[in-house]
Design brief:
This protein is mainly α and 193 residues long. 76% of the residues lie in helices and 0% in strands. It contains ten helices and no strands. The protein is elongated, with a radius of gyration of 21 Å.
């Protein structure tokens, strides 16, 4: 029942806020905070992932931020990255690790983390967007072209990104070439014409 899922989701959100507030309390012993984090990590590994309306990973991230040092959080993120089998979770952990490294002013480590995980489509797309936003269109195009070559299952996605970059560059000739490739790969779709 959808109403039950909504009620559970709201209850979980409320519980999560209370937990994060408690973990941020300086009067709570660190050993109690550590036990709570440990229980949350076990919950992450449980079957709660099957319920889309409960974001246990978000709660864990908030709990870690409220109760642990940045180095401890980095170590836990690394461990969760090794343990996860879901691509979407790994992408989220990579993003969080890179954000934390930037926050810690470890910019080279953040860049190396992103480069190491460019094989993940979401991370590649994020990096392409970052390059586009920085005006580095040629570098963004190279990443999209590499995605096209290395990730043939998502060929259309990478071609559409290439198309958009050529548009931003004002390169109509290459944009038309990509259009043809899209037409062929999408079996005659006129979407980009």
């Amino acid at each position: 029942d959808e109403m039950d899922e909504y009620a559970i989701s709201e209850l979980f959100e409320d519980y999560g806020k209370l937990m994060v507030d408690a973990l941020a309390d300086k009067n709570i012993l660190q050993s109690d905070k550590d036990r709570t984090i440990s229980l949350l990590r076990m919950t992450v590994k449980s079957n709660l992932h099957q319920y889309d309306y409960i974001d246990i990973n978000k709660l864990l991230r908030e709990a870690l931020a409220a109760s642990q040092s940045n180095e401890t959080i980095l170590n836990m993120i690394d461990e969760m990255m090794r343990e996860t089998t879901r691509e979407s979770e790994l992408e989220e952990y990579v993003r969080k690790k890179a954000e934390l490294l930037v926050k810690m002013n470890r910019l080279q480590d953040a860049d190396e983390t992103i480069k190491k995980y460019l094989y993940l489509p979401g991370i590649r797309k994020d990096e392409i967007q970052r390059l586009i936003d920085a005006g580095e269109l040629k570098a963004a195009l190279a990443l999209a072209e590499d995605g096209n070559k290395s990730d043939s299952g998502r060929r259309t996605v990478w071609l559409e990104i290439e198309y958009d970059i050529y548009d931003k560059m004002g390169d109509r000739q290459n944009q038309q070439n990509v259009c043809r490739e899209l037409f062929i790969s999408e079996r005659g779709s006129m979407k980009n014409y």
